[in-house]
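Chain A, query sequence.
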Amino acid sequence: MENAESLDIMLIRNCAGGIVFYENQVLLIQNDKEEWSFPKGVIRYDDSDDEVAVWRVKEEAGVNSRIIALAGRTSYEFYSLSRKKPVANRIIWYLMVADSAEAEPNLEEGVFKARFFPIEEAVERVTYSQDKSLLSLAIQKYKELNEVVE
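Chain A, predicted structure.
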């Protein structure tokens, strides 16, 4: 007979987040494991993905921002010790711009540092390769959109 835990169904969470620029800088947040990434959160109830992205940037980093384009999608899986089951996060990312370079980490949300870095430094600091790729694409799109605007 199979172990009951081996029959656990994967929890799939739809999330939204933002890659936020202010001039030639990018917002990064750091968690308690010293991993640098981007603000994001789970889409719940009747919330739209774009509303969640804007809200999570404000909630996690204290940054007012607005969406200018879709940046892309990523997904990753992990085993949740607290839930005792595998979890898949599917994230829709938005390219966003901030009103200023002021950022304030929200410790209650598990954000220990939040700040804007020059683009090149941000690419180096981002912890995961999937996020580095996403950031590289977002930088290209941001530059293209700025050329059109200027």
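The chain has one domain: 4-149. The longest helix spans residues 129-149.
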